[in-house]
Amino acid sequence: MAWRQILGWSTRLSSVSAHPNSVSGIAKFSSKSSPYIGPFMKLTKWVVIDLIEIAVKVGIPEFLSGVGKGLENHAEKLESEIGDLQKLLVTRTIKLKRLGIPCKDRKLILKYAHKYRLGLWRPRAEPVKS
């Protein structure tokens, strides 16, 4: 039984090594995407964000109130220090930490910013009370 498995592996390896992209039976992997995209257009994160903002104009207060969980308390601080939502979406945790945002709130902001960039989540269209 064991010999059959070994012989099966050796024949598979020899057939794989005949492939031009492989080196001695090991497939060649790369982090670069292939140049051929196909018939579908590849959307970048900024195109997705622009499409979402066409439907509802979202600022930092609307974003934070959409997340909820007490993040509305940081809206004034983030608006004065960061400015607009586009900058908040690419802000890293160290900058939020320097602004005095607690760890739990930083994690929520970064989690929902990532979802928002991907187009998987968006805040409700309710206006924020001033």
TrEMBL record:
It holds the Pfam family SAM_Ribosomal_mS41. Residues 60-119 form the Small ribosomal subunit protein mS41 SAM domain. The lineage of its organism: Eukaryota, Viridiplantae, Streptophyta, Embryophyta, Tracheophyta. This is Small ribosomal subunit protein mS41 SAM domain-containing protein.
